[in-house]
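Late entry, written up from scratch paper. The run itself happened at the end of the previous shift, but nothing got recorded in the book at the time, so transcribing now.
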Amino acid sequence: MAGSPPTRRVIDTLELLSDATEPRTIAQIADALGISRPTMSAILAELDDAGWIVRDASRGYRLGAAAAGLSRGGPADLSAVTSDVLAVIEELADATGCGATLSRFSTGRMTVVAKVHSRSRPVPGLGLGQSLATGYPAGAAVMAGRDLAEQTAWTQATGVAAAKRRRVLDVVHELGYAAYRPASTDASLIESLADLLGAVGPMLIDPGVRRSATRQLAELSSRAYRLDDLDTDEPLPLSYLAAPVARSGVVDVELQLGVLRSAVTADDRRDLGIALVEAAARVGALWGP
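Output as recorded:
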């Protein structure tokens, strides 16, 4: 299966600039990659906004600090997001009807390294290469495999008690993924906001407005479930699921499934979780032991 065309174009752009010995203009990049100039302009604008590239006084583009900050051989490096990895993410999105994202977590930040939109309900969210400041409970799938000192630092800023942290991480240990929800009063709001973002589309609204709406959506969808919360036959609101992806014993990547539904049955929750965990294991296997 071929990789996601939008994702492939971004990867090709970054690889071209990585190999370039001097800044390249929009026209030069577009011609080299066989991409229309309007499309190339939109790609470069997103990458520039995320800090992955920068434009100099001569209107030429080169790699920026965000790209330079990645270890090129690391598991979350864009060069590791091969067509086979993208195929797994696409299969997950198609099988579940949900958007799927591969994100790398470093100290206090999450960076999107691959993403595939749901065909039936595309929600823009963060763009490929964009980075967002995060804190507890985001990153629970990654933190479940870390030592106590790192887990304590993860929750220190929010003052979360150790017992509460353990209950969130127990979900990952037991089920293989973390599960998130909105606040109870926001269950219908999150679905409405997701539908609005999907209907308007990422290219039809101002990038600043889209980023603001995306941040709002993230805030509405970052309450972590505990095992006793999930142990019910009743439908539950579900924002997203996140499973850890390992490589050489190191886990700093999550495969995330954007469910964004106000009522998900127990059977559907189980099926979504199984599909996510299996896909995460396949990505990890592709990256090697």
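The chain has two domains: 5-68, 78-286.
(Scratch paper discarded after transcription.)
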